[in-house]
Amino acid sequence: SWEDPTGVIATPPIHRHAREERDVNTTVLGYPRIGAARELKQAVEKYWSGSTDAADLEATARQLRADTWRDLAGLDVIPGNTFSYYDQMLDHVELFSAVPERFRGLGLSGLDTYFAMARGRDGVVPLELTKWFDTNYHYLVPELDKSTVFRLNPAKLVTELAEARDLGVALRPVLIGPLTFLLLSKSPDCEPLSLLDQLVDVYAELLGQLDVDWVQFDEPALVQDRTPAELDALRRTYDKLAALTDRPRLLVATYFGDPGPALPVLASTGVDGLALDLVSAPGMVPRIAALPSLQRKTVVAGVVDGRNVWRTPLGDALSTCATLLGSVGRLEVSTSCSLLHVPYDVEVEDELDPRVRERLAFARQKVDEVVLLGRALSSAEGVDVDLTTPAGGPVKESDLAREQAVRERVAAIHPEDRQRASYDERREAQQSLGLPLLTTTTIGSFPQTADLRRTRADLRAGRIDEATYDERMRAEIADVIRLQENLGLDVLVHGEPERNDMVQYFAERLDGYATTRLGWVQSYGSRCVRPPILYGEVSRPTAMTVPWTSYAQSLTIRPVKGMLTGPVTMLAWSFVRDDQPLQVTADQVALALRDEVADLAEAGIRIIQVDEPALRELLPLREADRKAYLDWSVGAFRLATGGAPASVQVHTHLCYSEFGAVITGIDGLDADVTTIEAARSRMEVLADLASAGFRRGVGPGVYDIHSPRVPSAEEMTALIRSALATTPAEQLWINPDCGLKTRSYAEVEPALRNLATATQQVRATL
Ligand code: GLN
Ligand code: ZN
């Protein structure tokens, strides 16, 4: 963004090279929208707090859109409608006027109704937030029912197209396709797909109003397993839209995998183009080349990875494109999916090791790669493209011997390394912990106060030294231990005051991992994360948690739990090298954690928790791939914990309660105690676990920490009683749903006091 010298923000026309008719056009499927300096985050949060008005927010949004088009100016085709104040699924709820009743009666403006759906209002619960396929992005789940009537409300889209046109930019608007929109929606009284015909009519109406060359329909739901009826609905939908007269050309995009049987179905419809993810599913190439119907269509070849941060091996991408050139109608070069999932710009990462940085491409660099590939493929120009890109593989550390040692250690892993003593033997050995029935504990973190954050910032900025920082953290740990003793909790934690984030903390301490300064990626709404970058062989130079945990243990005779982040979560919430199977990388992380487990046990820590909140997130989108995934992910957890002596109690924590496909995986982790989210689902999960034959310790959360509400002792007593209906007291643990770091002490103290009281009351009746 820029200002003219008079201080008035002006938006100049965006200059683009004269459009020549090339053999191969260039595009991307979408772009980040939070702003390179998180301008949108700041603007919406200010608006929510009431310190700015809607006009200010809109001005920021307009500027961000113009910035995006300027970033994309080198492309032949620029996607539109990629901006969102919160979430693209929510934008479509608005586009189709599918606003649930409870938000309509609030008497709010359009913008405030939109935010009410995202965030709730007093007494009005927001739409549910769920992960977008297997990414770390979360979307809001549309709520439909059989009386839903879709009506077209295209104001947002139309405004954006007009803004672009004023700047001399023609856009290809991106819409969520009707199948994906409905398949991701929920409805209490009908199959969302039963609303398809009505919805397609509204899409048709919209196409009639758009004065654009192309429209992009995103249908990532097609890379999941789909029934024959759904594939049939797919065919009907796009045949109907293609049959419209006087319409824009239609591009259907699938990504995050192989559309499998949906590919020939889509190819047989009258749509004009398909965008396909050739990064996640390179095996598709021969099938694409062999489909005669694609000889008359445009194929948008997603050869630049939209989800990971490595530079594209341009030679490979070129040869993929060259294979397709002769066999499809027209070829367009693109990213595999929207660039929403990567940070803006690697150029600003001046603190990154240059050997790592030269291997990275964030959104801006990926756009450049697409442009370069387009030039190289266009016969009209004789552009020389430097194809010697450094690959995404490991950066050679100076210490080659150490790297070699990591690889040798992985090669030497034995099946027994993943196997602890039998559960019965372990239970026997752990009797000496002397834990009561219905043992109470917490998940790890205590509130991250403003003071703690400031202390961390002070250390980073050099305003305080390490010794002062350590002293401050120790004081916090001592407070947290004292509080837990006063509350009468049985198994204590140190409270994690020293951790900025459960993944970043470890990434900063492991070799082979880098962290960024400004590599923000939108997670949901205004919330952004900065995933670390796992670029090399992972190893642990020195103990990462032992001093803090030992210090906490020295203050109390009750057991203090050591607290580690598991290997799968360490990968799921990072950008990970893509030159070797994830399984190998996971085992490297697991070995580093295994050493930490050994050091904690050596230091006298009797209970160690290895968190795996992301175990379910990485679950493959197709059923057929899940067993292999669970094998290696569970295997990595077991490698991390398999060295723990029988007398050490291993805990794990999972941040969700709908286990579905992963229930066998949870059993497979073989943890002595598993704590899970359950307060919202009223303990249903216990019945599922019981019927799966789960017999080790289980701690269903009885305190929903995702809400500022303080549950009463009576409420928690009732939850504990209902848990006892399916789970024997010997197996049951009492704890909150998740870590307490996002809550305040004003909520946490009374809530934990009530939790302890409820436990006492139930114990008295056992
Ligand atoms: N131990 C972590 C905490 O309490 C677990 C967080 C999580 O499950 N996401 O904060
Ligand atoms: Zn959790």
From TrEMBL:
Binds 1 zinc ion per subunit. Binds 2 Zn(2+) ions per subunit. Its EC number is 2.1.1.14. SUPFAM superfamilies: UROD/MetE-like (SSF51726). Transmembrane segments: none annotated. L-homocysteine binds at I443, G444, S445, E496, D611. Coiled coil: none annotated. Residues 26-325 form the Cobalamin-independent methionine synthase MetE N-terminal domain. L-methionine binds at I443, G444, S445, E496, D611. Its cofactor is Zn(2+). GO terms for biological process: methionine biosynthetic process; methylation. Residues 438-760 form the Cobalamin-independent methionine synthase MetE C-terminal/archaeal domain. It catalyses: 5-methyltetrahydropteroyltri-L-glutamate + L-homocysteine = tetrahydropteroyltri-L-glutamate + L-methionine. Catalyzes the transfer of a methyl group from 5-methyltetrahydrofolate to homocysteine resulting in methionine formation. This is 5-methyltetrahydropteroyltriglutamate--homocysteine methyltransferase. It comes from Kribbella steppae. The lineage of its organism: Bacteria, Bacillati, Actinomycetota, Actinomycetes, Propionibacteriales. The gene is metE.
